[in-house]
Amino acid sequence: MGRKSAFKSLEPEKQAKALALMRAHRHKSIDDIRAALIDSEDLDISRSAVHRMLSKLNARDQMLASAEEHTVVTVVDRITGEVVVIKTAVPASLIESLIRQAEAVS
Question: For residues 92 and 86, what is the distance between their CA atoms, to the nearest angstrom?
């Protein structure tokens, strides 16, 4: 039998904060997520535990998408590292087309 998850052993309030922080930083590196957990919640959790929980969160969050959110657009600013996630009912093909048109204009 395996060990209990590092996240499941946290107090419920601290666990909720840690998971919210991971969701907010999910597109950053595991080391960046670990640093954010240490800085904001003083939680030193192993890289493997962070990776396992991130995989579970991603799978769980995909199942929770509502009908009007069938397209998810993730915009990452490669200079600042800022990530913006947009959930929309607009088809992915239309979003791609709009981006390509905007590139052609600029």
Answer: 12
Please tell me whether residue 32 adopts helix, strand or coil conformation: helix
Q: Is 72 left (phi over 0), alpha (psi -120 to 50) or beta?
A: beta
Domain boundaries, the chain: 12-63, 67-105
- The pTM (predicted TM-score) of the whole model is 0.56
Which amino acid is residue 65, in one-letter code?
A
* 75 contacts 86 by C-beta, under 8 angstroms: yes
| Strand duo 83-88 + 71-76: pairing | antiparallel
Q: Please provide the size of the chain in residues.
A: 106
pLDDT tens digits, one per residue of 82-95: 888 888 888 888 99
Burial code (b: 16+ CB inside 10 Å, e: under 16) for 75-92 equals eeeeeeeeeeeeeeeeee
Q: How far is CA 10 from the centre of its chain?
A: 20
Residue 49 to residue 31: CA distance in whole angstroms: 12
